[in-house]
Design goal:
Helix content is 27%, strand content 17%. The chain is of the alpha/beta class. It has a single domain, classed as Rossmann fold (3-Layer(aba) Sandwich). Strands 3-2-1-4-5 form a 5-stranded parallel beta sheet, with helices on one face. The model has no long low-confidence stretch (mean pLDDT 86).
Amino acid sequence: MKVLFIHQNMPGQYVHIAHHLAQTGHEVGFITQPRAAEIAGVRKLEYQPVPASGTGHAYTRELDSGVANGLAVARLCEWLARDGFVPDVVIGHNGWGEILYVKDIWPHTPLLGYFEFFYRPSGTDVDFIPNFPRNRTRLYGCAPAMR
């Protein structure tokens, strides 16, 4: 079986499964940003993140970065496809945009996304410290409505 992992910080959550698959005869690839990490028997491919230009709206900078990461990963996937590599499954983290375009390269290959965190208006990583309440004025750039 051919398995491709995608995570900007190799090995991320996939260290044990990638190692096990490689040690049991499967062909394993890993797309990541430049890292010193190695897993015996796993082919590592690196992409360079595109630095944010700083020109867009502050609310879209993370989106811009995610799209840039996705495009960089897609270029590596296209290169793998031209080289004849078609994975049986792709497993990746969705948080940084890296798996955005994988299905454009391999539309019939199953893609398993690791959805680690779901944002909501409260009870998350932006309002858990009582001394630092979320400031909607700062968030939206306008004064809150009078009640």
